Amino acid sequence: MNYETEFRTHLAALHQEGRYRVFADIKRERGNYPKARCLKSGTERDVTVWCSNDYLGMSQHPSVIAAMHEAIDTVGAGSGGTRNISGTTHYHVELEAEIADLHGKESALLFTSAYVANDATLSTLVKLLPGCVIISDEKNHASMIEGIRHGGGRKVIFKHNDVVDLEKRLRELPADVPKIIAFESVYSMDGHISPMTEICDLADKYGAMTYLDEVHAVGMYGLRGGGIAERDGVMHRIDIINGTLAKGFGVMGGYIAASRACCDAIRSFAPGFIFTTSLAPAIAAGALASIRHLKATPFERARHQERARVVKRRLKDAGLPVMDNVSHIVPVFVGNPVHCKAVTDALMDRYGLYAQPINYPTVPRGTERIRLTPTPLHTNAHIDVLVGALTDLWQACPLGQEQSVRLAAE
Question: N or C: which end of the chain has fewer CB within 10 A?
Answer without folding.
Answer: N
